[in-house]
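input
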Amino acid sequence: FTTVERDPNLARFVPDLQGSLATSLHVRTPPADRPTRLDIEGKLELRNARFGSLHADRVLLRGKAHGDPDLPQVDVEVQSEAVQILYYELGNARFTMHGGPNHYTARGEFEAKGQKTFSFDASVDADKHGFVVQAEPIEFTVGSESWRGALRNLSVQHEQGVELGFLRLGSRAQRLEAKGSMRVNGEDSLQAQLQNFDVTALRAVLGDSFPLTFGYADANLELHGDVQQPELSLTGALREAKAWNLEQIDALYTVSYKDGHLELDSDVDLKDRGNMQLDGQGELDGSIPDPIEALRGGLYNLNLEGKQIDVTLIPQLKGVMHAGRLEGALSAQGGLE
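output
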């Protein structure tokens, strides 16, 4: 399959997946007394794979599975090369899964430039109704920060949905906790809390164009509705931030999203250099799977109001005026590109 996304059968099972796929499979005919018995061995190779913000030069899966199709005995290994999320390079990966029919073990890690960027050790208990995953430890590195934690009771029930008991990760004073559920029939729900997050780690993921070079953030995220077309609510605070030539920035923010409509409201405190309020709306294409691309392609109506702004913060006035305060409002409409 030179282009996975053009094959109607593959596109139905994995929408939005792009790349070229090569397969070599050996499927044995089951015995007459056990017509549903699974007996398969081989490999799948996906090159130049892209799925939303995730990209890999090569993904190779090889192994074998036999027995009950619902609870097979498996021995599988996955290797990948040059895996990247947005601008963050996870590197090369190796994952293994062994066991069955009711208990499996899974291990894996990413490595980039000689440094381990992500690793996990998990156990899976399965029955005819679904399976439950426990993973500890989970470790990953973003920028200069190393995080460690655990995932508890990730339950997948066939034809019903997925429920996350909790995910908890920490790095020094930083904390991330999440829980939620996704239903086949019914409303999805996800809650996540982030405390004292070092925003410089975002530059490793989003690239050097991300304006914040220092600071700490708290955030509370809630997702409801269908995960494919979610209703999102994000509230939080930013402390001691640095951006461009500004330092010691504090801010409060609220962001909401539903059916392609984005709402933003924020209050920025520049200490003795003034205050700013930024609010507005955006219209995004909800069919774009990559959230960064959807934001870049959106159309916006933004309003900025400044109070007692130090004029030396404005580059166009810095060489003309040496002191003074500015008050005013600015409105802007259009796209980001």
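quick obs: The CA atoms of residues 102 and 126 lie 5 Å apart.
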